[in-house]
Write a structure and sequence with these properties.
alpha+beta; 6-stranded antiparallel beta sheet; 3-stranded antiparallel beta sheet; about 30% strand
């Protein structure tokens, strides 16, 4: 169960970067260390029986890597249960799930925005019925300071924005899974990200590196059409 590795405790770091983003400044070493000291899976406990979470003083939870995917799956389930709906796409900020089929019977086609050209797209993915796709990128929520881009996808190990990728798109059976892995693969070093994708038969991924090179997992080789 991959979600057992999910650490929901990054709220202090996320809040720190959000405040600095408003001021267009960069957190200092001491600020980062103080925020990081409040993160970690040991800073909270979950009681499944009572449905409660207990936090240490100063700690906080952030479910940004999962929440939209979870909501998309719930919405898609409602549409799937409606016999009057033959097909639909549920979209929540780049987290998409296909319900049923297109009227013409052809695969759903999802265009991926180019991470460095706002008016262009990277390519198109063909999506099967009930499949989901999610993208994490450094080009939607970011600010610039000192000529450098600071985005919202943080590396828990360093407390800094992750720098291994600029965009990651994941195709998976559920929107929750796609949402989770698009964030995880964005943060992981390139070799580990590729190993994670290729060792999981349910996943497909398109990863754009900072040098604009593009990795397409073997599982998507026949379903991803690069823009010409």
């Amino acid at each position: 169960q991959p979600f057992e590795e999910f650490d929901a405790s990054l709220a202090p770091l996320i809040d720190l970067w959000r405040r600095h983003g408003i001021a267009k400044t960069v957190p200092g070493t001491e600020e980062l260390a103080a925020a990081q000291s409040l993160t970690g899976k040991d800073k909270y406990t979950v009681n499944a029986a009572s449905g409660t979470v207990t936090l240490l003083t100063g700690a906080g939870l952030d479910l940004g890597a999962l929440a939209k995917g979870y909501a998309v799956d719930k919405a898609a389930a409602i549409l799937t249960g409606n016999k009057k709906i033959a097909g639909a796409l549920v979209n929540a900020g780049g987290n998409i799930k296909a319900v049923g089929t297109k009227p013409d019977g052809k695969p759903w086609r999802i265009a991926l925005q180019h991470p460095r050209k706002s008016d262009d797209f990277l390519g198109v993915i063909k999506l099967a019925p009930q499949e989901a796709v999610a993208t994490s990128g450094d080009y939607q929520r970011y600010y610039e300071a000192g000529g450098q881009r600071f985005h919202h996808l943080l590396d828990p190990q360093t407390g800094l924005p992750a720098r291994h990728a600029i965009a990651v798109t994941v195709v998976a059976p559920s929107a929750l899974t796609a949402d989770f892995y698009s964030t995880l693969l964005f943060v992981l070093p390139p070799e580990k990200a590729i190993m994670t994708v290729e060792s999981n038969s349910e996943l497909g991924a398109v990863i754009v590196r900072p040098d604009n090179s593009v990795y397409v997992s073997p599982s998507l080789a026949t379903r991803f059409e690069p823009a010409r």
